[in-house]
Amino acid sequence: MKHLYLLLFLGTFIQAFSQEDPLYVQYINNPMILNPAYAVLNNNFNASVSYRKQWGGFEGSPSTFHVSSHTSLAKNKMGLGILLIQDKTGANSNTEMNMTYAYRLNFNGTHLSFGMQAGFINYKTDNTLLNTYDPTDPAFNSDINVIRPNVGAGIILNSEKFFAGISVPRMLNTTTLLSTDTASTKARLYDQHYYGSFGYVFYLSTRMRLKPSCLVRYVQGAPLSVDYTIAINLDEKYTAGLYTRNLNAGGFLLQLRFAGAYRFGYAFEVPLNNNTVATRFNTHELTLGINLSLFSFQSSSITNF
Length: 305
Prior knowledge:
The chain is mainly beta. Helices cover 5% and strands 57% of the residues.
């Protein structure tokens, strides 16, 4: 019964207020999820798939599935990519597809990349999944199934040792019209999110690197969100780190590179205070990726970002 009440709460909240972007822990290993400028950053072909289950253990908890692929072109001056995301919370689901383009300027070891993305988002709400107290409540009489265009942009400044990016991956505020027997109301489906991401690499030895990073997220009507991560890498193959989000949630992440081109990542998260709605539930995030050199001008070497 608790799970049904929580599911109802999530569905009501998201209908009353526009949806927020899904969360990611391993953003620094695949920033294209949040910034289209990353499509030209690492001089090779990159593909990855990830799955995040937040607050696992009760019906309707948020889950996110994502697939992305990008490759550098024109002697690593340009990049093209594709991004697919499906995000579900309770009775609500978003399915998104974007094509990305990026262009890079080189300045003696420092690179400035500009990226754009364009596509569409399908917003859906299925109120039959909710256990409503009053089935006649007009707030739950109208399902949503609309497709809206999307455009996004980002910029990244990076070198071998540092990374800094700002982006707005979904620039269009989105609304739809909900109709009942007596009236029509406008519902907000999405508000712009603004991101800033930063990272730096300290070379502790020839085998060991320390990489602190942070992700700042802002959307109107919600508190500023800041993720802090510190990770250590050994022999360019093994990575382990700790992170926290506003000191309200935290956990660890692990990554392994194997067979030369493949990488596997796992992140585990738990709430850190008693005010979290899902205090007793944990979060898991899995990522599998590959890096290949497809063209003569591409590189198969491992980059820090």
